[in-house]
Batch of 2 targets.
Target 1
Amino acid sequence: MTPFESVNLFFTRAADICGLSESTRRVLSVSHREVRAEVPLRRDDGSLEVYIGYRVQHDNSRGPFKGGVRYHPGAELDEVRALASLMTWKTALVDVPFGGSKGGVQVDPSGLSRPELERLTRAYTRAMRGIIGPGIDIPALDMGTDAQVMAWMLDEYEELEGHSPAVVTGKPVALGGSPGRTSATGRGTIVVLDELMRVRGKDPAGTTLAIQGFGNVGSWAAKVAVERGYTVVAVSDVEGAIHRGGGIDIAALDRHATEAGTVVGFAGADPLDGDDLLTLDVDVLVPAALGEVIHHGNAEQISADIVLEGANHPTTPEADEILASRGITVVPDILTNAGGVTVSYFEWVQNTQRFRWPEERVNDELGLVLSSAFHNVHQLSIERSCSLRDAAFAIAVGRVAEAAELRGAL
Ligand code: NAD
């Protein structure tokens, strides 16, 4: 099953719960538009590479398309298509007035110099110029891209189209980015975890977390988790993993990772095999790196009570069923990692209003949006005796279907 087929399986279950008509199902189960473009790059040594870039726009019934741009060798069309559809469901679930899209370039950014990364970003922006824009489709950061990449994207677009700060989100604050955007996705994962703990009458103290990925999402999830009293016992990145049963000093790890470029070699913890992190006996497992890392081959070995999906689509449908049958709660990606797009929406609002919010307001409003989304999902999962994922998709699919049908095209 391809990633898009997997996501569509979740969509179909939700469509059944919502009783969607055949025509609405057909329209919402394919992308609105898919662009594949050549992205040429002049390397520093003068040679020319040609990469392939994509922008997939899934649905815009509820507002402009919205979704990040991923630089990763695995950013193939089907993967980008799956991620674009997830964005449609995610923006609907947290009720921000956007649709869903995603972009990607099949490249390993770690093999490029900063000037090469800048030229690649400018080439990708030129290639997608006609289909992005503040009221059309608003890119943001994702795996392999960061605030600096967004700054180059903004600059290239403005060279072509004039002042348009709302064309990308996740920009540096100095260029109209929102305070709190960098931390938003990781912070949001922990806001959602807090709500789940609250309804279960449990306390963060003594609750252990293992986090796969120490990039934007994983590192901020770790920092906020520790601030709120959780204990992070294991962390990994692409180079390897580390473990300390009594809890890792995340501030010290962050300093180490900034200097060394990896969590590996951190003196305050023991080395661990990357795959073993997933099966550690912890309370909460937070996949915050790649997709489909929990699959039929390892789902039986997952020992956590809760899987908090910081990454997009980290659990395959087969694994989802295995985890459910073993009584493991999966908090779905479209809820858990929706903090990023929520604060991206706040950034876009600030750009269009030409008015900046203080970070405290951003974090407070993020908390309100995610707590409310969590409680809606939790309530529906009780009413329908279904998983949190089915409840989350049902709410999202119902909202998108209503908007699409009201527009009259179906
Ligand atoms: P990032 O590029 O900042 O960090 C990715 C991290 O994953 C790095 O630490 C990298 O070393 C690690 N990693 C890569 N391959 C790995 C492997 N095989 N094993 C262990 N670790 C590995 O990316 P990010 O922005 O933190 O995104 C992570 C995930 O969260 C992605 O699935 C992304 O789509 C999703 N997400 C990100 C945002 C956001 O705002 N950045 C929002 C929603 C969802």
Target 2
Amino acid sequence: MRYFFSFLRRYLPPYKSKVVITLLCNIASAVFSVVSVALLIPILEIIFQQDSEVTTLLPWTLDSKVVINNFYYYVTSVKVTYGPGYALLFSGLFMIIATMLKCGMAYAASYSNVGLRNNMVRDIRREIFAKIVSLPVGFFSNERKGDIMQRATGDVAEVENSVMASLDMFVKNPVLIIVYIASMFYISLELTVFAFVMLPIAGSLIGRVGKSLKRQSSEGQAKMGLLLGILEETIGGLRVVKAFNAEKHIVDHYSKETQSYCNIAKRLSRRRDLAHPMSEFLGTIVVIMVVWFGGTLILGGSGTLFFSDSDNALTVAKFLAYLGIFYQVINPAKNFSSAYYNIQKGMAAMERIDKILLADDHIFENADGTPIKHLQSGIEYRNVTFSYNGEIDVLKNVSLKVPKGKMIALVGQSGSGKSTFVDLLPRFWDIEKGEILIDGVNIKDYRLHDLRGLMGNVNQDALLFNDTIYNNIAFGVDNVTQEDVERAARIANAHDFILAQPEGYQTNVGDRGSKLSGGQRQRISIARAVLRNPDILILDEATSALDTESERLVQDALEKLLVGRTSLVIAHRLSTIRNADMICVFHEGRIVEVGTHDELVALGGYYKKLHDMQAL
Ligand code: ADP
Ligand code: MG
């Protein structure tokens, strides 16, 4: 429960006023509810023809005794003048008004509660998304995408339910229970003391069931995350599934996991559903005990009325009203116990959400970092050693100087560390050994935003968003005009094919750009880089996924893009980097050869070997 309170401390403060409103409305509603039940007493007294006539009107004050006395006075005068039937109607009218106020206030309370609840959930959603965006890329290589999605959706929904239940529990039910119990004490002290000896016994039984609920709930959500993951991967990789005739395999896998989710969910619901029948059953036992005890008090004529001076005996009418109020207590008490269960479930979900929210942003934004708008002299990697998980060094003591305005090509076998090398520059990963300098200053000392603003990136798989071509090109750049976008598209050799699309620049590209060909996607991502007009350009096998025809178009676009910039170009096909100012050959995490194309061919080492292989 401590975790639950810290959760409230985190998300409740902005909505203090809403909490107060809900609380006040609930108090009012509880008071009117008691009044409406208490009005049963005069009504029953009229019916039972009990002598409760009052003939003196006291001067009005807010004292409850005066109010009750005067109410009886008016009931008596209606009864004397018009007969008992009208007296009943007269009391009934008050009961209707009290009930109306009770219901109205209850609605006002839940009205305000709805605002509170949804605002809190919106805040959590926003916080998760902002956190996902700010977390380093490395965080996600250890997580399943489906599970992350489940946390951001399913777990948040679970928290919403628990918040709803819990706010009821903390704002509404205690108020109701206190008001009801106070009035029960008011009617009969002995009976109420007796009833409350019984309740803790029932409460402890209910608490026992709730214990294992939290762990099971967490298991259930994790399983759901797994299911979402399979779903996501399958939709994304449907072509592979079909091509390998793996439908049956993957369907079996999915049904196995759904079965195990189904089992957990059943266990969970059944246990949670125990709350209601159990509290109802235990509640009935308590009620019967109370009826028995109250009945003996009446029959023995020895019941005392607390605070009451006129009539000491517990009358039948009062006892029935007492039972009426007692019955009202049972509902909030029941809700109290199911709220407890829901909180257990909700907090399990919140813990899963916190795995994201409280995750360490390894790459800390340097708040008072140096601003940088343009590259002045160059980039330098100095004795950089890097490993992804602290085990195998993927880069081993690598040093490289990239002077401003030069094109540096990186070549080497797959897995030799080229992509890792360029990913370190925008700080997708942070290094511990060695340093990377831009204009002689460690990149960690710059503002992260400025640092990344210096570079443009074109990768092997051009990642487009499910949006229009225009928005994909203008992505992340403020204040762009149609002309800017078109100019960028022309440089990227994309303008013509974009115009040929059904809606030109406003054509939607589909999920991840699936409505376009690989070369078209690539040229849009080049246009995106052109529009940013970065000083440093990083190309990671930008053409290797393309056929020769579109490669030529893309290559041509890239060459226009490279003019006048400092660039790191990873190339699969050596022909594309023949003109590089310098070529670095990577081998098993080291730079083993450096030079121009001609120098390296003449050297007869790794580069010559790669070159000869491609010449074949
Ligand atoms: P290249 O781009 O030269 O083909 P990479 O830089 O992608 O090579 O990979 C270098 C090595 O780092 C490979 O052995 C690869 O298995 C490993 N590696 C790449 N990305 C990750 C990652 N996110 N987590 C762990 N290891 C990785
Ligand atoms: Mg690579």
